[in-house]
Amino acid sequence: MLQTQYAYGQWPASVEIDIVESRGNRNYQSSGGTHKGVDSFGSTLHYGPSYAYNRWYTAHVSKFFFDGVETLDVSPPSNGGFWKYGNLDQTGVENPWRSGNGRAVPNCQSYPCLIFEDNFDTLDLETWEHEITASGGGNWEFEYYLNNRSNSYVRDGVLYIKPTLTTDRFGPDSLTKGSLDLWGGTPGDTCTSAAFYGCKRDGTGTHPINPIQSARLRSSRGFSFKYGKIEVEAKMPAGDWIWPAIWMLPLRNAYGQWPASGEIDIVESRGNRHYTAPDGTHKGVDSFGSTLHFGPSILDKSYDPWQTAHVEKTLSQGTLADDFHKYGVEWTEDHIKFLFDGQETLTVAPPAQGGFWKHGNLDKTGFENPYRNTSKIAPFDQKFYLIMNVAVGGVGYFDDTLSNSPTPKPWHDHSDFTTRDFLNAKNQWYPTWNPTERNGEDAAMKVNYIKVWKLSP
Question: Considering its fold, how many domains does the chain have in total?
């Protein structure tokens, strides 16, 4: 037996229950004479943080019954559970067995009406599915996403999404001599996107596999909504080239492939502490952006008029990593409004005639309008779901014209060796993540809660 979803990470962290295993050999025994063939069987629990720490031999039968007779009862202690039972508390490895819990609250009698709330007392895998892929967001970022409690976990009512080094899991030679195989084979570990070679990559000296392991959670199977108000209280990560995002995508692509069916970016930021545009505008962890993406479904991204529905804000003092802030969206049939700590930052209200196609000046392009004969708010008139992720680097978001201090950006967007150049500069960027302080959580995005209200019947 295996879990439907891997609540505690990859095998064997999310355990395996072997009810019966046997061998068909009629005359098969150990050197000591113990029968090991078809006249014998085993029942086992597999558990532990990794293959090397699988403590199956401590639970080689666990309260299984053979012809109604109990063969073994494995009862872990109430304090420490299976982590203690398997002596894993003596390994120094992080304990993955913490748990999670979204809250859906239906039946509205008055408005605004709270229809969803997650305070992250637990990590609810019925609501949040982990994406498992190296494709990232299509920007050739340097992370791959996995379901692992080193990268996504809850503690004291806060969700942490923390990037770590791939070599922490696979060893120092894995990036240039190993393979990253994410195809999987069970419901909890199957690759979720093969785009951009997302399910398998082979490492070489010039093209290493993704050097960062991180997490991306989506609510597409657990919660989606159309129109309402969403509020997320979160603290952004700090560290060079870290790219946190909380955003929304359509549950179904009613108007075609991206960006035709829309994207709502509630908040995107950069972890760099000293990062500026040529005119001195701050672009790092003291600033963030909120954006709508829409337009014709073509490969040329220049026809995504996101600049017409985009706002950036910079704090007057401190950074977004110092304290929790509230990021919000008010979404109606008439407009989409972005909020920061309760204050409006941008309202996008497309015209009644022409809607977003007119708002983005797309009526002058000659392309066919996918939003014709629909509402003025199209493509944002469909159900959307939530996404939370922490990416690292990639092409486009950390523009080559921006300046970082004290060390410059180590790769160029038009290079064929972006991942290699980023990796070779590890001694510059990794110390800015403060990996040896506070459990490396300066580099983590922390989410305190998510709330969604329905605003009208």
Answer: 2
